[in-house]
Amino acid sequence: MLITETKLRVRYKETDAMGIAYYANYLVWFEVGRTEWMRALGPSYGELERSGIFLPVIRVTCEYKLPVRYDDELTVITRIENLGVVRLTFNYEIRHGGQLVARGSTEHAFVNAKGKPAALRKMNPFLWRKLTQALEGDPAE
């Protein structure tokens, strides 16, 4: 299974009046992790979109465990959980100093340039195979 770890720091602008990272930023950090996961798998998100395949978010969950503050270094751990004909689910853990601070998931639909659902297996068999291998932990990944 392909699992990536992406490092980032909480920026000052991402904190609220209490000095704690604002809750919506966790979704942005999920996106950073997801983008780096796709880059590690290949193709990148940009290449995917240029080929006419888009992955809009259709559902998101986030469970907050511990607060983080300005300049804390975070690790976003990203993996895929589920791959369907027209859907893909990513799981995330955000850690600070080894401690779990948040976990969540995003579910995406595969759509074409017109926003219509697209069966990835037919539209891009190469990417379908790579995603399947990344999910199953195939040694050929």
Structural account:
With 141 residues, the protein is of the alpha+beta class. It has one domain (4-135): Hotdog Thioesterase (Thiol Ester Dehydrase, Chain A, Roll), CATH 3.10.129.10. Helix content is 28%, strand content 33%. The chain is built from four helices and five strands, in the order E-H-H-E-E-E-E-H-H. It has helices at residues 25-41, 45-50, 120-123, 125-136, and strands at 4-9, 57-64, 73-83, 87-96, 99-109. It has a five-stranded antiparallel β-sheet with strand order 1-3-4-5-2. A hairpin with a 2-residue loop joins strand 4 and strand 5.
Which key phrases capture this entry?
141 residues, alpha+beta, Thiol Ester Dehydrase, Chain A, five-stranded antiparallel beta sheet, 28% helix
Q: Architecture, CATH level 2?
A: Roll
Distance between the ends: 8 Å
The largest pleated sheet is described as:
5 strands, antiparallel
**C-alpha Rg, in Å?**
16 Å
Largest sheet strand order = 1-3-4-5-2
The portion of residues assigned to helices is 25-40%
Count of helix runs: 4
CATH 4th-level superfamily? Hotdog Thioesterase
Tally of domains: 1
Approximately what portion of the residues adopt beta-strand conformation? 25-35%
Structural class: alpha+beta
CATH uppermost class:
Alpha Beta
What integer is the average pLDDT? 94
